[in-house]
Amino acid sequence: MTKPVGFDPKSLPESNSTSYPEPWRTQAAKRWNRRVGDHGGLKNFGVNLTRIEPGGVSSQRHWHLKQDEFVYVLEGEAVMITDAGEKLMKPGMCACFPAGAKNGHHFLNRTSKDVLLLVVGDRTPGDSGEYPDIDMTVALQPDGSFRFFRKDGTPY
Amino acid sequence: MTKPVGFDPKSLPESNSTSYPEPWRTQAAKRWNRRVGDHGGLKNFGVNLTRIEPGGVSSQRHWHLKQDEFVYVLEGEAVMITDAGEKLMKPGMCACFPAGAKNGHHFLNRTSKDVLLLVVGDRTPGDSGEYPDIDMTVALQPDGSFRFFRKDGTPY
Which of A102, A118, B130, B145 could form a disulfide with A72 if both were Cys (CB 3.0 to 4.6 A apart)? Predict the structure, then answer.
């Protein structure tokens, strides 16, 4: 099977779907993903072109136990929130979130223009993660889906 | 240990070192890498900011057996060579090279300005690869180094 080689990722359809339970599902509505790596046949890591509309947020603040994450700012200005506080991220800046570093992070768009991020994460099995600001944890399932739990272990 | 979160990858030092044997070592001299993911503490995949000077080439044309590769053009115009021929890659375009797809690829800079690529590859152990245009194969070693062989199996 010949997979496409060499394309404009902006030509792909985008989706604001999320597996978050409410109320975080609704809060994710201004974040749109284009699944660039999937389109190109990559399996070992995912590559998303993530567009955050004004007032939107990339995700709930989170960290991964086993998976690395990389974010590169392509367009617009985002505010990155980590345990260290806020940092303005301009085009050409990037951030690395190594697996197991319990430094929850996400990106906000407080401007009036779209933010465009290139987001890479590997697919190491058995990943889990935590959301420091809300009562939620996540566990990657063997089928690739995510299950969400309260911090007392009860499922959403 | 606190790793840096949020930085300008252009602030990192760059190197044109390569593990290629001659004569391909010399031909790699116009390709400069900044090891962005390593700097940020990532281990599951590598992220390089790769600068190709005018007249330079990203690598010898190659494919990977077990590792996925992703390339995003940040600046300049590169000519991508694959089994399908040449393709002009402008800023904002990307290419995916899934593990095991025996479609050798590399990027040439035929312009008078630098080409800047963001290159991501995972680190699945036991990777190997082949160079369709030259008498060379490569095998990733358990220590993370590369060993190069002629196609009759004799080492370089």
Answer: A118
